[in-house]
């Protein structure tokens, strides 16, 4: 064997080893990319809301309060904070014209018939955690019994702009017998 053949064989072996190393690096990079993608998807799972129960309290003064019990879940692997909750009430006026009311949660309203605490904003959720509670929304006094509620949508907004919502078409009417205060 002459030197040219030995150099060619050594070059071929070097190229083969280089190709094997490149294939191994590509597999390692693909695994790393898949892991990073799974981690990113995990962080973006985000906020989910679940409706537990609803009630429409009718007070002796004809004041009407919608109370909703719900569970907020953060499925992400990073903490999240729910900064606002609002209720969108879709109703029909006596003339049949549809109308949408947007209500903020009311403080100091009556206690709810559920063994849950009141949710107060902001609700801080650790990674992969839940918080349950209820919110009350007072209907305006102009919103009388003659108006029919079509549906209610409870919309939660996080500090980073993420939203979660639940909707209901049924409200259990509850006559409020406790003294107002």
How would you characterize the overall build of this protein?
The chain is an alpha+beta fold. It has one helix and nine strands, in the order αβββββββββ.
Defining key terms:
single chain; 5-stranded antiparallel sheet; 181 residues; 4-stranded mixed sheet; alpha+beta; 1 helix
Largest sheet: 5 strands, antiparallel
Helix-strand category: alpha+beta
Radius of gyration: 29 Å
Distance between the termini: 106 Å
Task: Give the count of helical stretches.
Answer: 1
Query: Which of globular, elongated, flat, extended, rod-shaped describes the shape?
Result: rod-shaped
Q: State the total count of DSSP E strands.
A: 9
Average pLDDT over all residues: 82
Q: Residue ranges: pLDDT <50 for 5 or more in a row?
A: none
Instruction: Estimate percent helicity.
Output: 10-25%
The proportion of strand residues reads 35-45%
Q: Give me the strand/helix succession.
A: HEEEEEEEEE
């Amino acid at each position: 064997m002459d030197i040219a053949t030995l150099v060619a064989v050594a070059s071929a072996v070097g190229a083969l080893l280089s190709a094997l190393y490149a294939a191994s690096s590509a597999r390692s990079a693909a695994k790393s990319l898949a892991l990073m993608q799974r981690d990113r998807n995990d962080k973006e799972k985000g906020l989910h809301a679940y409706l537990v129960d609803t009630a429409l309290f009718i007070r002796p003064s004809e004041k009407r309060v919608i109370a909703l019990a719900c569970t907020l879940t953060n499925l992400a692997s990073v903490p999240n904070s729910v900064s606002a909750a609002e209720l969108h009430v879709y109703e029909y006026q006596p003339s049949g014209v549809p109308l949408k009311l947007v209500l903020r949660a009311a403080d100091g309203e009556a206690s709810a018939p559920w063994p849950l605490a009141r949710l107060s904003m902001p609700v801080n959720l650790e990674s992969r955690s839940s918080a349950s509670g209820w919110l009350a929304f007072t209907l305006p006094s102009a919103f009388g019994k003659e108006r029919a509620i079509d549906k209610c949508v409870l919309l939660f907004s996080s500090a980073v702009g993420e939203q979660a919502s639940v909707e209901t078409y049924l409200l259990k009417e509850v006559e409020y017998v406790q003294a107002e205060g």
